[in-house]
Specification:
mainly beta; 5-stranded antiparallel sheet
Length: about 170
């Protein structure tokens, strides 16, 4: 498999968040109080799910968290052949090989479906299900390392007869 050294995260809910490690204890996810509507936008999970589109940004304690919205999909963090970091969301493919062949063949200078400008203030980040608190003991996550700086995150929806995937590519500005 030519996956650019991919690491994997499997999620069970709609949105995942990319949170700087220094803010993990500030992401509260769904409130544990019984009777609270989890989609109430006064809580982190509700705010994440309220965003429309493939990508969004939320302020948390003065820093920006990236929200990757979509259906529940296995998500990989890898490097595109262009050298740029990418998140690959597995929507439909017969194998990882097919999935990464499509993602790696992506023309990153071509038309994109959505764009987000984002500043990465620290190298170590964590991608996880937005319903969980960032410091939960039972949290499943994916560690992500990005060089601090300003990025344009481009979203591409790839659909062909064998593969359907969403690819988010981080481009340094």
């Amino acid at each position: 498999m030519s996956d650019g050294g991919a690491t994997e995260h499997r999620q069970q809910r709609r949105a995942v968040v990319l949170v700087p490690n220094s803010l993990l204890s500030n992401w509260m996810g769904v409130p544990l109080d019984s009777g609270v509507d989890p989609l109430d936008p006064s809580h982190d999970y509700g705010r994440a799910c309220a965003l429309r589109g493939w990508l969004g940004a939320l302020e948390v304690n003065g820093a920006t968290v990236v929200v990757v919205g979509d259906e529940p999909n296995t998500t990989y963090f890898a490097t595109h052949p262009s050298g740029q970091p990418m998140l690959v969301r597995w929507r439909a493919a017969e194998s990882e090989d097919e999935l990464f062949a499509a993602a790696n063949a992506l023309e990153v200078e071509g038309p994109r479906d959505e764009t987000l400008d984002w500043t990465c203030n620290e190298r170590d980040l964590r991608l996880f299900d937005s319903a969980f608190a960032g410091d939960a003991d039972d949290l499943e996550w994916l560690d992500v390392r990005l060089d601090p700086g300003r990025y344009t995150v481009d979203t591409y929806i790839l659909v062909n007869s064998r593969v359907w995937t969403t690819v988010h590519v981080w481009k340094r500005q």
